[in-house]
Specification:
102 residues; 2 helices
C-alpha cells in the first residue's frame, strides 16, 4: 500500500505503543470460500535483536477460521490481514506457523 511520507511512521516504539493500545481488531481471511472477518483479541510479541515481532491472536477451537488460516499460510504462503480498530491501516501478521499461533 502506498503511504505518503507525511503519513509514514518508522519509529518502531511508537508503532508498538499504538498496537498495544489497540489490541482488538478484525482478522480478515480471503480464500476460495469467500471473505470472512472475525473480531479477535491479540497480543504483540516483540522480536529479538531488532526483528519486527508478530501478532499473536486467540481464536476459539470451534471457529473454523483457524483452519482456513493454517491452509492459506502454511500451504499457499498467503497471509491474513489484521485491521486494528479506529484506523484505516491494515497489517499482515507473520510467522504464524513457526510460532504455533495457528
Amino acid at each position: 500500500m502506498y503511504v505518503p511520507n507525511h503519513f509514514k511512521e518508522d519509529d518502531q516504539e511508537k508503532l508498538h505503543q499504538f498496537i498495544r493500545a489497540n489490541s482488538f481488531g478484525m482478522l480478515v481471511i480471503a480464500d476460495d470460500e469467500g471473505i470472512e472477518a472475525n473480531h479477535v483479541p491479540f497480543h504483540l510479541c516483540i522480536g529479538e535483536n531488532g526483528a519486527p515481532g508478530y501478532l499473536h491472536c486467540h481464536l476459539a477451537r470451534n471457529n473454523p477460521v483457524w483452519q482456513r488460516m493454517q491452509y492459506l499460510w502454511c500451504s499457499k504462503g498467503q497471509t491474513p490481514t489484521f485491521l486494528p480498530p479506529g484506523t484505516r491501516a491494515s497489517w499482515k501478521p507473520v510467522e504464524l506457523c513457526q510460532h504455533g499461533i495457528i
